[in-house]
Amino acid sequence: MLEDLKQEVYEANMKLPKLDLVTFTWGNVSAIDRDKGLFVIKPSGVPYEDMKPSDMVVVDLDGKVVEGDLNPSSDTPTHTYLYNHFKTIGGIVHTHSPWAVSFAAAKMDIPATSTTHADTFYGDVPCAPALTQKQIEEAYELNTGKVIVDEFNRRGIDPDAVPAVLVSQHGPFAWGPTADKAVYNAKVLEVSAEISYHTLQLTRDETHVPQYLLDKHYYRKHGKNAYYGQNNAKSKSHAEHE
Amino acid sequence: MLEDLKQEVYEANMKLPKLDLVTFTWGNVSAIDRDKGLFVIKPSGVPYEDMKPSDMVVVDLDGKVVEGDLNPSSDTPTHTYLYNHFKTIGGIVHTHSPWAVSFAAAKMDIPATSTTHADTFYGDVPCAPALTQKQIEEAYELNTGKVIVDEFNRRGIDPDAVPAVLVSQHGPFAWGPTADKAVYNAKVLEVSAEISYHTLQLTRDETHVPQYLLDKHYYRKHGKNAYYGQNNAKSKSHAEHE
Amino acid sequence: MLEDLKQEVYEANMKLPKLDLVTFTWGNVSAIDRDKGLFVIKPSGVPYEDMKPSDMVVVDLDGKVVEGDLNPSSDTPTHTYLYNHFKTIGGIVHTHSPWAVSFAAAKMDIPATSTTHADTFYGDVPCAPALTQKQIEEAYELNTGKVIVDEFNRRGIDPDAVPAVLVSQHGPFAWGPTADKAVYNAKVLEVSAEISYHTLQLTRDETHVPQYLLDKHYYRKHGKNAYYGQNNAKSKSHAEHE
Amino acid sequence: MLEDLKQEVYEANMKLPKLDLVTFTWGNVSAIDRDKGLFVIKPSGVPYEDMKPSDMVVVDLDGKVVEGDLNPSSDTPTHTYLYNHFKTIGGIVHTHSPWAVSFAAAKMDIPATSTTHADTFYGDVPCAPALTQKQIEEAYELNTGKVIVDEFNRRGIDPDAVPAVLVSQHGPFAWGPTADKAVYNAKVLEVSAEISYHTLQLTRDETHVPQYLLDKHYYRKHGKNAYYGQNNAKSKSHAEHE
């Protein structure tokens, strides 16, 4: 069942340690088959070196396991909620990458201070508020999805234009059209957090890039006037700057 | 004698350089057989690349060498003291990992500012006071154990719930049910120190996570209502977040 | 056509990930044949692991592709402008290396605070102003070259003496007599940015090195009285300090 | 001539990139045969991957090359001066390791804030003043040695007890009884600088360790009452903490 998607999700999970985004097993990736209404997610707490494509768990959009011998990631309700409310996304990744977590712990957005950020994120990456005691005790992982979606709605942010978020006191989630692209976005998020941290220590001047620079970098790569890359398969994956 | 435990302690020691927790030989791990009242510890000052399982030294709870050709770690009296006073722990690790040492040099607790910390440590990791001149001159390594135990008693902290400490001007100790789990905790401590350092530079706002978030993350993985992982061997080791 | 130069440019591009100067495909290197008035540049958005010397694109000094099946780097107009105005340079590199980008985002020069900097850069590395809305919308990449050249002219800096620049809100460009030397300079820039960042956090005292130290280190390695290295092929490449 | 010493110096040089202490060729190590009054030093500007033991250059205590086809390191006069004035040292290393250079650029001592530092350095590592214009123009490298020796004399520091120094605006030098031990000390210096940097950012409280802690850690490993290690060959090299 969904063997190709399992392979894809497996490979995307295995990229996390390779890209220095996880310590131990602290990350998970999923991807969805929108036609079938099913998504594939990493099992809970299995070390990367032991994981196989067949360990991936298939879950439906009510969060129920449809296939798989192992428990799915304990963050599965967060993934379910995001797939149900961000209708265009195809893959989700959660990590505890340390620069992004530092901003989440400080309850700060990651400001768009350079083109490295703007090539992927059309504006600041928002930091959603911490869950309340009630939200935590009632349904922790599901409400983690809820505070994310609520924050995007409240600020009027398009999740395709800003494909990542921080949750206060917790850490980053990123997404994209595929699992692979979600992992790519999670790495850009970490690099952008590292750069913005240092920028904020260097100066107290305003460092947000202006709207017209955001526009330029976003539309250089998105939409009908995009002119970056080869417009063919060779450059499709991970070809953001050069 | 205790060949399995020697192998376990050897392997846990060899993880320290692999996890970037030590420079040169600056770390040591031990583990105890509570039934026999004996523990196994790394020899003093032997480079990791030359170390063999049979080099491990067997020590009793009076700190006397029972078996082994090499001198045990010079920190052996600290380990002895901790095993005698923290009755439930099975393994201990000491390193000079740089983020944790930076907090120890600043004589500051590592604050619980995110779930990365809270998944392993049920509250701040305390920084025990520096040893007095008398404590240093009388019995330095033994008194290092003593200031740790005294600080946990003074603050009423359960060493199973917060399995690590800093000693002011010196560095971190971590422990756990096994040598392997102690090393895991030492790594989480280092990552948590790195994150909290950056958090403290980003903001002067209060960043401690609330008690109910500590409760949620601790009891998600500990005690009878835990629901994280696979509840089987495959996920037992190092499966803290996903 | 220009097979040797393609090989050289290919190898210089492949050094970028090896020297930790790029994430994903975020860098590009070119080199020029001044006699023919043609330069060779990396194709746009091709992952390093898939790239071959024959993928390199040949471009003339009007920025027109002369040979190659792939699109050249989208930053080609910047390279073209720099080759046309900095007549002595033979190779150019652009990266998003994070320490240099942090200074660019803060719109700050990288100050010459130590001999590590002064051995390669005869003074501060300037940060050129951010492009205006008009400059971005009219001809973004070409105007990136223009703000660089204008800033060197305005300050009266010799591009051979200070072979690198930051562009505000964007990142670093470096150059040199060859592609290989340009990559070398890009790495020194990153190390120098890292050092100066930490220096600026340690103290608010003046930390610029004096003019006579700049003179000493520059003329120790450049011009007729240079006495560094072996004056033979073995030490020619990358022999800046010892 | 001095083939064993050449091998030793070669191996010590090759450790610099392995220990992350150098970028490109930016480091040099030498060692002296006190009986013959000759020292062996790395050639100038030769990449590590091309270097052979036979490339090492033999120099006398007047700084004259006695054997070798290549130019010795351009820092040779600094080494000569140090061997002539610090009579007990057997090996010297110079690097541009970035944490140490950051303190040198800030013209600050590296404070002894933890036992990681105190196990190797019996007090702060001093930052010698920047060379004057006259000192630079007359005899730059020789006067670099002179400001080091003068600073140790002025402060009354024993170079065996504090085997390293920073030179303002330049960087670190370390030494020891052998080339290998000098490289060890250079690595401890870098780690200690990293820790002290972070300590100084965490707190404005006094963080120097007290004299009695310096005494304890120094005499635990030095002199007739030392009790660290195995007192045999196996633990002789690099066995400072455990």
Automatic annotation (TrEMBL), chains A, B, C, D:
Source taxonomy: Bacteria, Bacillati, Bacillota, Bacilli, Lactobacillales
Keyword line: Arabinose catabolism, Carbohydrate metabolism, Isomerase, Metal-binding, Zinc
Function as written in the Swiss-Prot or TrEMBL entry: Involved in the degradation of L-arabinose. Catalyzes the interconversion of L-ribulose 5-phosphate (LRu5P) and D-xylulose 5-phosphate (D-Xu5P) via a retroaldol/aldol mechanism (carbon-carbon bond cleavage analogous to a class II aldolase reaction).
Class of enzymatic activity (EC top level): isomerase
Cited InterPro entries: Aldolase_class_II_sugar_metab, Aldolase_II/adducin_N, Aldolase_II/adducin_N_sf
Coiled coil (UniProt feature): none
Protein name: L-ribulose-5-phosphate 4-epimerase
Record's catalysed reaction(s): L-ribulose 5-phosphate = D-xylulose 5-phosphate
Protein family membership: Belongs to the aldolase class II family. AraD/FucA subfamily.
E.C. code: 5.1.3.4
GO cellular component, one term: cytosol
Molecular functions (GO terms): aldehyde-lyase activity; L-ribulose-phosphate 4-epimerase activity; metal ion binding
Gene Ontology BP, a term: arabinose catabolic process
Domain annotation Class II aldolase/adducin N-terminal: ranges: 7-197
A Pfam family it matches: Aldolase_II
Pathway, per record: Carbohydrate degradation; L-arabinose degradation via L-ribulose; D-xylulose 5-phosphate from L-arabinose (bacterial route): step 3/3
Cofactor(s) this protein cannot do without: Zn(2+)
CDD domains in the cross-refs: Aldolase_II (cd00398)
